[in-house]
Amino acid sequence: MPLYEYQCGQCGRFEVIQKFSDPVLVHCPTCGKDVQKLLSAPAIQFKGTGWYITDYARKSSGGNGSAKDAGGSKDASAPAPSKDGSAGSSSSGGTT
Length: 96
Hints:
The chain has a domain at 3-38. The protein is 14% helix and 17% strand. The chain has three helices and three strands. It has a three-stranded antiparallel β-sheet with strand order 2-1-3, with no helix packed on it. Strand 1 (3-8) and strand 2 form a beta hairpin.
C-alpha cells in the first residue's frame, strides 16, 4: 500500500498508509484541523540486471561480432611496422 504525506497547520507533517481506493484525508487525525496532501518522491529500488550502464555494455564471451573485431578489420589490411620502424617486410640485408 502507498505511503502518503500530509501537512497539518498545527501538528506539522505526518505520513499515512492508505489504499488507492481510500478517500484523501481532509482533517488531521490528531487535532482535527484541515490538512493538505503533499507530493513527495517515491522510494523506488530497482533490482536485477540492466539498471546500470555497465550491465548494458556486457557482451557475450564468444567474441564474434564485437566492436573491437569489427573496427579492427580496416587496420588488418595495412602492413604492420617492423621492429626497426619501416612498414612492410623488406629483404634488404644491411651490411655485406
